[in-house]
Amino acid sequence: MGRGTLGEAAVAIGERPVIEEPRLEVRRGSSSLSSRRTFLVAAVPLLAAVLIGALTLAVSGNILLPFHRVVTLEGKMASKRDFFEDAEVQRILMKHHIRVHITSSGSREVAVRDISRYDFVFPSGQPAGDLITSARASRNQYAKVHRPFVSPIVLATYREYAETLRDAGIATAHRRAGPGGPLYYVLNMPKFLDHIHRQVRWDDIGIQRHGITNANRIVAQSPDVCGANSAGTYLALVAFTWHGEGDEVPDTDREADARGREIKHLMDQGLPAADVFRTYISPEGKGIAPLVVAYEHQYLAYQVRYQAESKKLDPQRVLLYPSSQFVTQPQFISLNRDGDRLGELISTDPELRRRAMELGYRILDPTGEVAGDQLTGFLQGRDIPVPSMENDDTRTSMPRLRYLERMISLVGDCPAVEALPGRP
Question: Alpha-carbon distance 412 to 269, whole Å?
Fold first, then answer.
């Protein structure tokens, strides 16, 4: 057997061949710097996002929110749902570990329907609130009232209509005007109702001079009086004005029925309760609902939004303040302890009170009076003319609940509350 060379793969040792083990070569990665760079490019933005998120939670006070139980409260209301649907209100409530789910319903409908599955209700005025609290008191059920803010009843319209009423001596312009003309007018209610009574048309009082024609009768469209507090309050205002300055409010069933019959032809309910103001601010509103019953806060909140988005006011949409006025007090009624906690928050929490003011409400102090001039300062800071905040309007008395209900039932052809099953 010949001698192999050193480089051969197999050599003989005795009888058994030995295989030389292969040599493994470990090479140092040449792209380590590139890999590290790729990792940093991917990781740094992610880390930054985490840090920014943590900082945001810390600043907003929600850093520990994932570790707390969030309570979802069920509420039922009409126009005041705008408050709870506001993103800033929802953010503030989340800091207190509260989420609110709203069922929309007219205020009077809230009062006459079953509310047992809700934690709170928020009717827009005292009559509906009194229906609820009296019914629950008769059954020994929990009910606690909070009054966080107020908002007057107004008539929302367009400049051409307001100026036509002004030409006819039915409205006068507010002394504070915006760049496009006055946003606020005082409506002479006796003259206005007289024109409705005589079936005067817009064309009859010269609306053509303001660039449009309208052969329809002059009316103020309200939501369904059977369901909405704003319509019920406007009905009481109409009844007071139409009857004259003598006996202000009915105090017998017979008088209430007579008043209802007297004013039925003065009330127009052409739109569903939830759609009146939203129709008014829609592009088609002028042709569908040129003059509607609304709340002041709805209009002010609309102008604040419009100003923020377009950097100017909407000079075409204006308000008419009735010469006689009811003070409508929304009542937050908690139906259990969780609901009461929410009622306390919206009445006392500084952030929620400020946000209510930013949404156009006149917030109340603990005594029930309008709290200072916060709304005035807020509107002035955004170059929005301030409506009259003085208490110089003619204040009218609401009828007692029993008699108001009789008038509502007669005017709206809706069932009287006493006739509804299960009501006291």
Answer: 9
Largest distance between two CA atoms of the chain: 142
CATH fold of 65-150+330-386, please?
A: D-Maltodextrin-Binding Protein; domain 2 (3.40.190)
Higher pLDDT, 324 or 137: 137
Domain 153-328+395-419 belongs to what architecture? 3-Layer(aba) Sandwich (3.40)
Tens of pLDDT, residue by residue over 38-95, are 555 555 566 655 566 555 555 545 544 455 689 999 999 877 888 999 999 999 999 9
Question: Three-state SS string across 368-419, please?
Answer: CCECCCHHHHHHHHCCCCCCCCCCCCEECCCCCHHHHHHHHHHHHCCCCHHH
Query: Where do the CATH 3.40.190.10 domains begin and end in the chain?
Result: 65-150+330-386
